[in-house]
Amino acid sequence: MAAPKAAQLYPNTLAPADCLAGTFRFDAATGKLHWSEELYLIHGYGRGEIVPTIDLFLSHKHPDDRSRGREIFSQVLTQGGSFFSFDRLIDARMREHRVLTAGEGILGRDGGLSHIDAYVIDLTKTLQRETEQFAREAVVAASASRSTIEQAKGILMGALHIGSEEAFRLLVNYSQHRNIKVARAAADLVGLANNSKDPTLLDGFVQALNRGPVRHRSRIIGMHRHQGRRPQRSL
Question: What is the per-residue pLDDT across 148-191, written as a single tens digit (0 to 9) for each?
């Protein structure tokens, strides 16, 4: 029975420096579990420190993931076939890892399980790096959105002679009415302001923002009415 091949990680997807991959084989006839060097490292051990067993392997899973791991292993023991799982692993130093386990239970000629071969890939550093990158991009995007919204408010303040809060309220009302984000409405307005080819498009958009839904119209237009004139009533 040949030993399982070493896991291959391709640098265009998962760089070896970012994650560690190991293999294990469970021999159904002897009940022995064989770990590669990398699997010892993932679990926080060196070769010779412990004797790997299925119970030890499952005990390192996060308590909330352990029962599912036992269920998968029990099913493969009786039926064979391919399996995979994404779990949290607690190593010997109590550090949490995110690992992907994928393998196959191979049946013998008698129909019973011969052995299980599996790969275990530690994705902790990869996921951490992607999370940090996402957070950085979110901060940059939020900063850019704030800048664009401030520019849009300035355009409305100058065009309609209104204050900062009223300008922002117009953008919010327009975004809610059109079911788009405030940043998107602001970006459209700023884009039109930077388009010198057809200034009428900007004027039309400003007027659309000014009109807004009917329930907001009187508040904006009322700011430009003569303060001393009383509204006329119809008989």
Answer: 888 888 888 888 889 888 889 888 888 888 888 888 888 888 88
**Dist CA 111 CA 132 (whole Å):** 48
Confirm if 31 and 73 have CB atoms less than 8 A apart.
Answer: no
* CA 161 to each of CA 56, 155, 190, 229: distance values in angstroms, whole numbers, following the listed order: 72, 10, 17, 20
Tokens coding 171: 């953008």
Dihedral Cα 183, 184, 188, 189, nearest 10 deg: -30
pTM given for the model: 0.56
* Residue owning tokens 């790997």: 52
Q: SS3 of 119, please?
A: strand
